[in-house]
From TrEMBL:
Domain of life where this protein originates: Archaea
PANTHER family: ADENYLYLSULFATE REDUCTASE, BETA SUBUNIT, FERREDOXIN 3
Keyword list, A-Z: 4Fe-4S, Iron, Iron-sulfur, Metal-binding
Pfam families: Fer4_7
KW Transmembrane helix (keyword) present: no
Database matches in InterPro entries: 4Fe4S_Fe-S-bd, Fe-S_Ferredoxin
Residue ranges of domain 4Fe-4S ferredoxin-type in the record: 35-65, 67-98
Name this protein carries in UniProt: 4Fe-4S ferredoxin
GO MF entry, a single one: metal ion binding
Species this protein is from: Methanocaldococcus bathoardescens
Length: 124
């Protein structure tokens, strides 16, 4: 599936960008899930750690004029990932509250799906 994702260009570091928004999350259309970082530019110091770290999904572009990251491909973000937020030295990245994703887990019966997967592999 990942090999079949459309390639949509290269970023400022020459990394190949794929459109991960086509890949469903637990069978849910990725574009229905509002999980991605928002940058607080009042705090961001333009260190580049988020932009460089998100090397697989390439959620960020780099604004060469402002010398700051931009959230260019929000639906490329891994649902529930907060790596860039954890690494940001000035806490400039914001994500939805945990309750938001827990409600999606309930709505789409993801615990049932997880149990079925474990059963199908004779793991429970
Ligand atoms: S949360 Fe993870 S996938 Fe999403 S932008 Fe940050 S590092 Fe990339
Ligand atoms: S890690 Fe934080 S401070 Fe550094 S560029 Fe990203 S948002 Fe800005």
């Amino acid at each position: 599936m990942n090999d079949e994702l459309p390639v949509i260009g290269k970023d400022a570091l020459g990394r190949v960008i794929k459109d991960w928004s086509f890949k469903p999350w637990w069978g849910v259309d990725r574009k229905e899930i509002e999980w991605y970082p928002k940058i607080n530019y009042d705090k961001c110091i333009g260190c580049g750690v988020c932009f460089i770290t998100c090397a697989n999904r390439i959620v960020f572009d780099w604004d060469e004029e402002k010398k700051k990251p931009v959230v260019a491909r929000p639906y490329n973000c891994v649902v529930a990932c907060t790596t860039c937020k954890t690494l940001c030295p000035v806490d400039a990245l914001e994500f939805p509250e945990k309750e938001y994703i827990q409600n999606i887990i309930k709505k789409h019966k993801i615990l049932v799906k997880a149990k079925e997967t474990l059963k199908n592999h004779n793991l429970i």
